[in-house]
Amino acid sequence: MSVEEPGGGPSPPDPLVSPDVGAGRRRNPRRQPTARQLSTREVSHALFAELGDPSTSENRRNDCRDELVHLHLPLVEHCARRFMNRGEPLDDLLQVGTIGLIKSIDRFDDQRGVEFSTYATPTILGEIKRYFRDKGWAIRVPRRLQELRMSIGSVTGDMSQELGRSPTPREIAEKLGVSVEEVMEGIESTNAYSTLSLDAGDTGDEGGNNMLDSLGMDDEALANVEIRASVKPLIEQLPPRERRILLLRFFRGMTQSQIAEEIGVSQMHVSRLLNRTLDQLRTSMKDVS
Amino acid sequence: MTNSPDVELRLPAESAYVAVLRMTTAGLAARLDFTLDDIEDLRMAVGEACALVLENADPGGDLHANFDISDGSIRVSVSADSSRDSDPDQDSFGWQVLTALTSDVLTSNEGRQRWVSFTVRSSIAA
User: Do A167 and B39 touch (CB under 8 A)?
Assistant: First the structure.
């Protein structure tokens, strides 16, 4: 059966038209089912029933399996998209996800009363995750280090929360019961993960962009850095009250009336002060440039 | 730069070896109980400093790195032989990154060697 051609089969509801069928239903089972969703589920049930029927011919059985795969391809796509932009092309993720789908179709037992999408999703996700674990590495990194890298990642997150700063390698080492050297090794191994060629296609599915095209862009935020740097000394020169009003208005997001109350002057006065301060900043900015 | 540094490293003045230097720096910083963020900053700073000195480096020369290690801070100095008489461009992006990430960034000349040095302190008060 062809794995790469989503629209190729004669599946009654075109999977491309309702791309989120399985997942949508799983998230909100009580949602009023539309005609299409209902039919997808019914078709799925009917096909599984036929597949499970001992009197079904071998040929028909294969057709059923094919149809089931096509029917649930949108579910694969949904799962695969969750792993987009992680350094692996979406097409590859779709392929391994589809393998997961086929496995779950072969193992699924319709008699259990579980929705197929509920059953298949973990299998598809598992297959994609395993692909990342096994294939995503540019050079072969021992399983020990791969696992260490992952535990370092999660421990770092937890400890940053606890400590209010990022942890030191020694702290991580103590938490994990390994040596500082091993922690550094684990961190270093992160760099071995997935070095893609610059000419490799974008992980997205549209357009022929490659990574080379995405380099060398001017970050729009850079202009702000410059502005911030030039405004900062000006703000520092302001009288304390004016600076405070500026701070309350633009950093704390308080309204003029709230500021008025906080400082103990009228709102009108705050407005005047604010306008004057901003004018002042604007003129000094012009003088600078 | 003549006060004896704690760790010295001499490498070929080629960008391919900068990775080795970064890794070594990270290892030293780990010994000093720098946080992961500090280490990441330090690695980036080493990379930028090397890029600055390698820009004017003579081909086939050496890249020198000295590390002055004290409690809670590390001073890194990198240099390359250069026959060109030009200091690192202080308007360059690399210089900006370096000054943003580190403190006491200095350039100096010693014979033909052009040095860039900077200090990174551990964010845990030492």
Answer: no
